[in-house]
Amino acid sequence: MRHRLLLLGGTGAALALARAIDATMPDLAMTTSLAGRTRDPVLPPGELRTGGFGGVDGLVRFIDERGITLLVNATHPFAATMSAHALEAQRETKVPLLRLLRPAWAKQPKDSWIPVPDVKGAADICRWLGKRIFLSLGAGDLAAFAGIAHPHFLVRLVDAPETMPLARYDLVTARGPFTLADERALIEQGGIDLIVTKNSGGAATYAKIEVARELGIPVVMIRRPEIALDPGSDMVESVEAALDWIADQTERSPRTGDRNATTGEKA
Ligand code: NAP
User: Fold this and answer.
1) How many Å apart are CA 183 and CA 186, to the nearest integer?
2) CB-CB contact of 73 with 97 (8 Å)
3) What's the rounded Cα separation, in Å, for the pair 75 and 8?
4) In angstroms, what CA-CA distances link 116 with 5, 124, 139, 207, 244?
5) Is residue 36 in contact with ligand 1, taking CB distance under 6 Å?
6) Measured distance CA(15)–CA(155) in Å, rounded
7) What is the DSSP annotation of 5-74?
8) DSSP string covering 162-190, please?
9) Is 239 in the pocket of ligand 1 (CB under 6 A)?
């Protein structure tokens, strides 16, 4: 029986994985799922679906109805809700789950980082530090900075939002990866004296961290949410390792029929 992979995507790593699967695993049926946060996403090969599943129940239903036999969670490191739902769905369906999570950025000796636990903690720092602040965040994070009137913000987003909750700001729309030269120009021309970012990891958005190091600019670094992993689920940090995991799983028979048809209970 043919394996069917559900790839929870929305990251560069998910796109790279989908392309690698498409190129090397012709027998694997693959559906990528996107949250639908960007208006014009780069489309992965294979089948695509967009938008929330409707919580854990909706995800479990999708897995059952579509006969999914493998689940890979390659969402953003801060996508804590989707990751928790994937774990719950794994517990219910027993479909093998892999978390593909790129390593977090590690502080270098010349970095000046202010670690904070969440976006609200970052906004608290901006109340007293920084006159021209580069917010390298998602549109959904900006509301936390709404009441902060004195600094001038530079906001970079993939798409212009419908409403902007900030008082004084410039908006740049751009999609990574970003080069060192481009980030240096943006930060120098903007007169930036504070940068706010999530610790997303990966190379595509790391250049701003290097520029901050060069120019001695402090970085408010939002720590990753902690996401527990079940002993039964696996985690890898690279696309290559994810491919190995999938190859290993596809050599086994798909786990179907785990559920008892008459009671709905797991067998
Ligand atoms: P989230 O908070 O974990 O997810 C919220 C809900 O969005 C989920 O419960 C799910 O809805 C839906 N969802 C998320 N990812 C999905 C996917 N791949 N396919 C289908 N539905 C999905 O994640 P988030 O809202 O995407 O983002 C959380 C944080 O990550 C934010 O700080 C954001 O800025 C950052 N981030 C996300 C992405 C991305 O592409 N997702 C990219 C860059 C940064 P249901 O419960 O209805 O299934």
Assistant:
1) 5
2) yes
3) 6
4) 36, 9, 19, 20, 35
5) no
6) 25
7) EEEE--SHHHHHHHHHHHHH-TT-EEEEEE---SSSPPPPSSEEEES--SHHHHHHHHHHHHT--EEEE-
8) S----SSEEEEE--S---HHHHHHHHHHT
9) no
Q: Is the CB of 200 under 6 A from ligand 1?
A: no
The whole-number pLDDT of residue 232 equals: 62
**53 CA from centroid of ligand 1 (Å):** 11
In whole angstroms, give the CA distance from residue 78 to residue 199. Answer: 9
**Is any atom of ligand 1 closer than 6 Å to the C-beta of 140?**
yes
The pair of structure tokens assigned to 211 is 């520029």
**Tokens 């997303």 sit on residue:** 200
Express each pLDDT in 2-25 by its tens digit: 899 999 999 999 999 999 999 999
- How many CA atoms are closer than 13 Å to the CA of 80, on its beta-carbon side? 8
| pTM score, whole prediction | 0.90
Res 230: pLDDT: 63
Q: Which atom of ligand 1 is nearest to the CA of 119?
A: 32
Q: Is 177 in the pocket of ligand 1 (CB under 6 A)?
A: no
Rounded to the nearest integer, the mean pLDDT of the chain is: 92
Ligand 1 touching residue 82 (CB < 6 A): yes
Mutate to test the pocket of ligand 1, among 71, 81, 97, 145 (most ligand atoms within 8 A of CB): 81
Q: What's the CA-to-centroid distance between 8 and ligand 1, angstroms?
A: 9
In the reported structure, the alpha carbon of residue 254 is separated from the centroid of ligand 1 by a whole-number distance in angstroms of: 27
Q: Whose CA is nearest to atom 43 of ligand 1?
A: 76
Tell me how far apart the alpha carbons of residues 66 and 101 are, in angstroms, rounded to a whole number: 25
